[in-house]
Amino acid sequence: MSKSRKTCSLDQMQQLMLVVVLVMTSVVHSVSGQNLTAVLLGFTQYSQFNSLLSSTGVAQQLAGFRTYSVMLPSNDVLTPWLAANSKFTTGEIANVLRYHVLMNYFTVDELRGLNGGENVTTLYQDTGNAYGQDGMLTITDGTGGEVFIGPVGVTPTVQILTNITQFPYNLTMFKISGVLVPLGLVALPPAPTPAPVPAKAPVPVKAPANAAPTLSTPATKATAPSPNAATALLVHQYSYILLLSSLMLFSASFLLNL
């Protein structure tokens, strides 16, 4: 009976350890594949980009990838670009966002090393939505040590300004000076102009006492990023690993004493 109980306990322990290992593997995967939107919460100057990631569904798509680099235009760059390109549909905006995601982890030195010698694949190219090389980017060095990025086939004009943060070797984020737009989207034909509607006689309206603020109001200075946001995310995720490890050790000890 004792031998049977011991064999049963060993079998149960092996099954339990298998379950714990599988769960831990899943947690480690989630730690490696950083949640971009959660990380960006600590960098308020990129909140417009972060909001669009969620509203277009690109954030959900990125959850399936573990390694990538992101080129980020700040709010004072992206907001006026969106206003000037209001004709773009949600799907086209989503492709613009995908065009900012490079499907490799790059350090600053690695980006400098490319210098036009190799085209870089983006999430836009990876999805199969792009025509030909429309979803590829090229990177070149400037004469003064600058690094520029842009569509293949034209001289890049968007400058890579600084490395914002990185999680080796899964996620790295760079600040850029402009918005990257695939050439195929730039060449889209304009939407058909609707037939003119006869104008009605204007109705006098009394002007309000205080004029409403306009979109031309100068952008406010970007606030400094919160350095604790990304760290808190990692601490929270790694706590699951420690908890599961303790559970495995406790369970193994308990079953061996049955």
From TrEMBL:
Superkingdom of this protein's organism: Eukaryota
Domain FAS1: 33-180
Keyword Cell membrane recorded: yes
UniProt topology in membrane: Lipid-anchor; GPI-anchor
Keyword tags: Cell membrane, Glycoprotein, GPI-anchor, Lipoprotein, Membrane, Signal, Transmembrane, Transmembrane helix
InterPro entries: FAS1_dom_sf (IPR036378), FAS1_domain (IPR000782), Plant_FLA (IPR033254)
Listed Gene3D superfamilies: FAS1 domain (2.30.180.10)
Cleaved signal peptide residues: 1-33
Regions crossing the membrane: 238-256
Subcellular location(s) per record: Cell membrane
Protein known as: FAS1 domain-containing protein
Source organism of this protein record: Sphagnum jensenii
Taxonomic placement: Eukaryota, Viridiplantae, Streptophyta, Embryophyta, Bryophyta
